[in-house]
Amino acid sequence: MASHTPALDPRTLTPRNRSGYPEPYRARVLPREKRALGDAFGLTRIGINQTTLLPGKESSMRHWHTHEDEFVYVLEGEVVLRTGAGEQRLSAGMCVGFAAGVEDGHQLVNRSDRPAIYLEVSNRDPEDRSEYSDPEVDLVWSPAHARGRFTRRDGSPY
Fold first, then answer.
1. What is the pTM of this model?
2. Domain residue limits, the chain
3. What fold characterizes domain 19-146?
4. Which H/E stretch holds residue 74?
5. 2: pLDDT confidence band, cut at 50, 70 and 90?
């Protein structure tokens, strides 16, 4: 739904507190709040979410995208960025970007004692699929035979 005003306060948007992840992965990310800023303005080529990640929660499983660039900007609090290179603490004012097709999974973890708030920005590519980097996470997002769904690595559905 497009906004009819040129600007808005993100706190006025209804937050989403859901995940498409199957269990046991869903419990690792929820509860969290995502406010779809891009949707509020009718943006169709880029997605922008303001996400609140509670202490002890993960933004996602460690993943990378085949066709989507992704950018994260920390607004409040701090999170730990996990990649193949290790871990890095990100605090308010820091940002990170991930180019499409680079096979180095990323994830944010809130190990602090207060919520963290950050912006997630990405292009919306219908051909995108996500691969998950941690061996114990048996997930693939949107393979060719199951567009818009999660499957196991062997292609079987959840």
1. 0.90
2. 19-146
3. Jelly Rolls (2.60.120)
4. strand 70-76
5. low
